[in-house]
Design brief:
There is one protein chain. By secondary structure, the protein is α/β, with parallel strands linked by helices. Helices cover 46% and strands 21% of the residues. The chain has a six-stranded mixed beta sheet with strand order 5-4-3-6-7-10, sandwiched between helices. Strands 1-2-11 form a three-stranded antiparallel beta sheet. α7 links the parallel β6 and β7. The longest helix is centred in the first third of the chain and has 24 residues. The two termini are 29 Å apart.
């Protein structure tokens, strides 16, 4: 009924009773009209008959019957999909701190923008989620093990430092290990909370040379998929980003550091995660808002009888009030 499932569908049989009451009322009105037509003194009938229009006389009963229909649906326990905050989940935020993150194509810089958005992401996650932080350049470091203490994560984000090279695979492996450690503490197995890795990077993996290497990014993504841990990747930056580094002769050189969408897209695809792009702080915040919705909430089948109950009571109350106001008696 109405596209709903019901916890106690047998209560819907009471709809037959309500329909019977409505039918009985309609039959009584027909009989009453026939009896009235037998009244020979029509002048007297006009004086004693109600003055309000015919349809107004039936409004109170109609309202009460609708109210009974709604209350019957409420008693049947309608169930609908409801969006509720997760009370347990694990998320590891993985942030690229390679030298290319110093590029200023995103104001004030890729790293500074990533830090601000990362703090906003930490603050916006629902309280029941354990959030960890991994930073990576040539190596990966678990800066914060998954915890509900958001201040620890935000403080670690503020202290991120740039370094050389990009070991994306090591970062994913470190995040997986961090998730596994927490799962073992919480019970592991089927009791382990759902987990997600959120990886923000701007460049292609440089350590090792091949992403299919045993410690490469694609290999790590496949392991994440095997463990049921999707990796959502964010390609952050533009195609025209540059940084200044010291050349072989010690003089400063400007080097292009374009984002590498294909590899990050592949990591997301291999792990069962989602791929996003962002070229500004505002876009990055929007991506994190989307992830917060995906990660922080779940859809569950829950009781939806409240609105039906309220509507039913209001219709019955309106019917009784209308009856008293128009007839000076209950229907």
């Amino acid at each position: 009924m109405f596209g709903l499932d019901f916890a106690s569908p047998w209560w819907l049989l009471f709809l037959l009773v309500v329909i019977g009451i409505g039918g009985g009322y309609a039959y009584a009105q027909v009989r009453r009209r026939k009896d009235a037509m037998r009244f020979s003194n029509f002048d007297l009938l006009e004086k004693v008959a109600p003055k309000q229009p015919e349809i107004v006389r039936h409004v109170p009963t109609a309202l009460v019957l609708v109210g009974l229909l709604l209350l019957t649906v409420a008693l049947a326990g309608p169930l609908t999909d409801q969006r509720v905050p997760r009370n347990r989940a694990t998320v590891v935020l993985v942030v690229d701190v390679s030298l290319s993150m110093e590029a200023t194509d995103v104001e004030p810089s890729r790293l500074a923008a990533a830090q601000e958005a990362g703090r906003n992401f930490a603050e916006g996650l629902t309280p029941g989620i354990n959030l960890g932080l991994v930073a990576f350049a040539g190596t990966a470091s678990v800066l914060v093990s998954p915890t509900t203490n958001r201040e620890a994560t935000k403080s670690a984000i503020d202290r991120l430092q740039l370094s050389e090279r990009t070991a994306t695979g090591e970062a994913i492996f470190a995040a997986i290990q961090s998730i596994d450690t927490l799962a073992s503490v919480l019970g592991g197995g089927e009791d382990a909370p759902p987990a997600r890795i959120v990886l923000l990077s701007d460049g292609k993996e440089t350590v090792p040379e091949s992403p299919d290497d045993p410690r490469g990014a694609y290999t790590a993504a496949r392991q994440a998929a095997a463990k049921g841990i999707p990796v959502s990747t964010i390609s952050f930056g533009t195609a025209y980003g540059t940084v200044v580094i010291d050349g072989a002769d010690g003089s400063p050189q400007q080097v292009r550091v374009p984002v590498d969408d294909p590899s990050l897209q592949e990591i997301a695809d291999l792990s069962g995660g989602s791929f996003f792009t962002a070229q500004s702080l505002e876009e990055l915040n929007d991506v994190y808002d989307t992830l917060e919705e995906q990660i922080g909430y779940e859809v569950v089948r829950g009781d939806a009888s409240g609105p039906w109950m309220i509507a039913g009571v209001l219709f019955i109350a309106a019917g009784l009030a209308t009856a008293v106001g128009t007839r000076q008696r209950l229907p």
